[in-house]
Write a structure and sequence with these properties.
Blueprint lengths: L2 H4 E5 L3 E5 L6 H14 L5 E4 L11 H16 L9 E4 L2 H10 L7 H11 L3 H7 L4 H10 L1 H16 L4 H6 L1 E2 L1 E4 L9 E4 L15 H4 L1 H5 L10 E4 L9 E2 L3 E3 L11 E6 L4 E6 L1
Parallel strand pairs: 1-6, 2-3, 3-4, 4-5, 7-8, 8-10
Antiparallel strand pairs: 2-11, 6-7, 9-10, 11-12
Length: 274
């Protein structure tokens, strides 16, 4: 995957409406969408930070439908363009891509067992497409041919929901602003973490698994003024600091969905929760 298709360059937006991890919570998402729809203007960007589908009492398919419907609604406004919408790849979406390719894994059964043990919330997304983690575990024990048929079934079920398969192709690893005058005002958006010692192109899977490194940041991650994430696996709550911002209000874990209105320089202009 090239740098261009891995990362989204937001350019120099007016404002950036940044939505924290949704985790399949349809009602809060609809409320946040209503807020954005009322205040969003041409020149703004709308950015989602991953983990869209799976959480407590989640409605995975309906949540994706709402994301797609809202995108169409805003694009109907004069001045809005497809590039105004950015969707980051979260941990759940990374695991979903692994599930869809599980028949290629040299130790597929071990991978499925790890997902079932550490991310049982993925059962909700599988259920939305007519399967379950129990099906995955059973099929993984049966061998490569049943696994291949199972992943084909999942893809067929996903294609049966308009726009769902396309949605997963839109996901980016990170996003950033690019100011022509000065790098000092650039901001970076990630899902959950990053390694401050590595350049952006070398982060690999640290966007999903380096949450502790993100929390330990004390100085700016060059060349960015601020790094903003939407998911905190440690559930530390919303935090606005000098060099980092964490927006996860615990949506899907009994908390709230958070939307931050940010300036192009990363200043938090407002916080809306639902």
């Amino acid at each position: 995957m090239s740098f261009k298709t891995s990362f989204s360059n937001l350019g120099q937006p007016q404002r950036i409406w940044t939505v924290s991890a949704i985790r399949g919570q349809l009602a809060p998402l609809a409320a946040i969408h209503n807020h954005i729809y009322e205040h969003c203007r041409p020149g703004d960007r709308v950015l989602y930070t991953g983990n869209y589908c799976a959480g407590m009492h989640a409605a995975p398919a309906e949540t994706l439908d709402e994301l797609l419907y809202f995108r169409r609604s805003l694009l109907a406004r004069p001045g809005m363009v497809p590039e105004d919408f950015v969707y980051l790849r979260g941990t759940q979406e990374e695991l979903w891509s692994k599930i869809l390719q599980i028949h290629f894994a040299p130790s597929a059964r071990a991978v499925v067992e790890w997902i079932a043990a550490h991310h049982p919330e993925m059962n909700g997304l599988l259920s939305a497409y007519g399967s379950s983690l129990d099906d995955a575990l059973r099929t993984a024990r049966e061998g490569i041919v049943p696994l291949t048929k199972w992943t084909i079934f999942l893809r067929e079920q996903m294609r049966a929901r308009a726009g769902h398969e396309k949605f997963f192709t839109l996901l980016r690893r990170a996003a950033f602003t690019e100011h022509a005058g000065s790098n000092d005002n650039n901001i970076l958006f990630v899902h959950a973490g990053l390694d401050p010692a590595l350049p952006l192109a070398a982060q690999g899977d640290r966007f999903w698994w380096a949450a502790r490194s993100f929390g330990a940041m004390q100085t700016p991650y060059h060349p960015f003024r601020t790094v903003i994430r939407g998911c905190d696996p440690d559930r530390g709550g919303v935090y606005v600091g000098d060099v980092s911002v964490s927006l996860d209000g615990g949506c899907g874990h009994g908390g709230q969905l958070v939307c931050a209105q940010l300036s192009a320089c990363g200043d938090v202009l407002s916080l809306q929760s639902a």
